[in-house]
Amino acid sequence: MRPATALHYLRPIVGILGLCALAIIVRAVGVSAVVETLRGAAAWLPVLCLLEAGRIAAEATASYFAFGSLAPRIPVVTLLRAHLLGHAIGAVAPAPTVFNETIKATLLAPFAGAPAAASVAVINQAATLMAGGFFSIPCAFAIYALGGESLWLWACAAHAVVLVTCGVGLRALSRAGAARSWIASKVPRLAERIVVFHVHATEAGLLAAPTTGALFMGRAIQALQYGVAARAVGGDATFLHAMAAQGVNLLAAAVGVLVPGGLGTTDGAFTLAAHLLGVTAARATSLALLMRCVQIVWLLIASVLALLGSSRRTPGDVR
Fold it and tell me: What is the pTM of this model?
């Protein structure tokens, strides 16, 4: 299927999926709970949504770096649009990073070619793992400063080791010439595309430092979000509490990676970590719920954007 044809079907599908996910989240959380949380923290919602836009911009910057020499081919508006759709709708899907990267690769493939877009998706996946792992380290220190040795501390430390190891391993595998040759020998018809994929994969360093750094900044913005959200629900908004909240969020995301939107896992983790975060269980639940409201706002924006489509003509099939 040509990329232009794929885009023709992808846009309405993404929009419908987004609206369905929105309905599921609101139903699971409860309309009354959403309204009650917004009523008490409505003044802070624009700030939280603006910070979420910063996270989307950080992800777009990461992909720009990942495309390397091919980046100038991609219009900035298209790059941002692809990341808005992928970020907002992927965030409420099972295996969010995979879903996110699939949407972005499909939307950007007409400009850089499918093999390069697939390579960027793998680079982003690995960089997401590494950035999350590296950011878990200061989160672990914050948790230790607030509560000493605890299950949360060791879980955060283990999370850092596992994610960095998996991210570096994925990068090493995608850059390995032996792996490229083996796959090409098993699927000869894809040999040419596999070579293009491999050449692009080796263009970035093993740690894909610019991409990983941009995603690390995205995690820093997310930590700031949790600090603002804590302030909005009447909790402590110190640097340590914001970093600890981000550590809890990263752990919850890892545990609930296959649960759409992390429904139940994220909310439950914050309730369990209420004492560590210096808030009551009710406020911890409200904090998680407020972040759900941010997701709902951006999910609605992304769904409308996807359904409206784009007036821009997409280029032809790029190999």
Answer: 0.83
